[in-house]
Write a structure and sequence with these properties.
The chain has 11 helices and 6 strands. The longest helix has 15 residues, at 184-198. Strands 2-1-3-4-5-6 form a 6-stranded parallel sheet, with helices on both faces. It is an alpha/beta fold. 55% of the residues lie in helices and 14% in strands. The radius of gyration is 17 Å and the shape is globular. The chain starts with a strand and ends in a 7-residue tail after the last helix. The protein has 2 domains: 2-136, Response regulator (Rossmann fold), CATH 3.40.50.2300; 141-213, Arc Repressor Mutant, subunit A (Orthogonal Bundle). Helix 3 (62-72) links the parallel strand 3 and strand 4. It has helices spanning 11-21, 36-45, 62-72, 87-95, 108-119, 127-137, 142-153, 158-168, 173-180, 184-198, 203-213, and strands at 2-7, 27-33, 50-54, 77-82, 100-103, 124-125.
Length: 220
C-alpha cells in the first residue's frame, strides 16, 4: 500500500482528496494535517510514502513545508497541490525537491496517477504546470541556464548522459532500462550516481538540467 499524508487547511478539501485516493485499492491515507508545520511533524513521526501539500496554508505554507520536510523526512515524496498555477510556484516546488505539482481542479484519476508516480520514484507535472516550465525554458534566461547546465553535465560519462537524457523524457527506471537494455536496478544505480554528480536532490531537477542543456536521447 502507498501511505499518504494529506495537508490542507480546509477540512472539506482533505475529505475530498481522501475519498478520491482511497478509492484506489493500492493507496491508503494514513494521516492528515491542517497546516505546514503539522505536516512536517506528522511526516517525521508517521510512516508516509507520499505527502500532498497545499501551497496556501497557515502557520507554514506548503513550499516552506516542502523544504523543511526534505530535512525532517527525506524519504517522503512530496506533491504540491494548489489552485494557483503561477510559474514561480512551480519552479520553487521543483527547486525545493518536490516530486511533482498538480492543480486542485485536476481529474480524480490524475491525482491517483500522480501519487502512484511519486511513490514509484518518478516525477509528475500536471499539463498546466508543464506549460509553465516549458515557457520558462523558452525565456531569454534559458541561454544562461543552458550554458550552466552544459557545464554541470560535462563531468558525466557517456552512459550517464544516456540515462539522464531518458530522465529528461520523463521515463521511469524500468522504461529507461528497457530502452538501454539494462536492468531496472542498474538504471537506479546510474540515477543515484547522476544525482550526486550534478548535486541534484531528485529526478525532476536532473531532468530539467537535461532539458536546459539540450540533451537528447539517441535511443528509439
Amino acid at each position: 500500500m502507498i501511505r499518504v499524508l494529506v495537508a490542507d487547511d480546509e477540512p472539506l478539501i482533505r475529505a475530498g482528496i481522501r475519498m478520491i485516493l482511497t478509492s484506489a485499492d493500492d493507496i491508503d491515507v494514513v494521516a492528515e494535517a491542517a497546516d505546514g508545520r503539522e505536516a512536517v511533524e506528522t511526516a517525521r513521526s508517521t510512516a508516509v510514502d507520499v505527502a500532498l501539500l497545499d501551497i496556501q496554508m497557515p502557520v507554514m505554507d506548503g513550499l516552506t513545508a516542502l523544504a523543511e520536510m526534505g530535512r525532517a523526512a527525506p524519504d517522503v515524496r512530496v506533491l504540491i497541490l494548489t489552485t494557483f498555477g503561477e510559474r514561480d510556484n512551480v519552479l520553487r516546488a521543483l527547486g525545493h525537491g518536490g516530486a511533482g505539482f498538480l492543480l486542485k481542479d485536476s481529474a480524480p484519476q490524475e491525482l491517483i496517477h500522480a501519487v502512484r508516480a511519486a511513490a514509484a520514484g518518478n516525477a509528475y507535472l500536471s499539463p498546466a504546470a508543464t506549460r509553465h516550465v516549458v515557457d520558462t525554458l523558452a525565456s531569454p534566461a534559458a541561454t544562461a541556464r543552458g550554458e550552466e547546465a552544459r557545464r554541470r553535465l560535462a563531468g558525466l560519462t557517456v552512459r550517464e548522459r544516456e540515462v539522464l537524457a531518458l530522465l529528461g523524457e520523463g521515463l521511469s527506471n524500468a522504461d529507461a532500462g528497457s530502452r538501454l537494455h539494462m536492468s531496472e536496478a542498474t538504471v537506479k544505480t546510474y540515477v543515484s550516481r547522476i544525482l550526486t554528480k550534478l548535486d541534484c536532490d531528485n529526478r525532476v531537477q536532473a531532468a530539467l538540467l537535461a532539458r536546459d542543456a539540450g540533451l537528447e536521447s539517441n535511443t528509439g
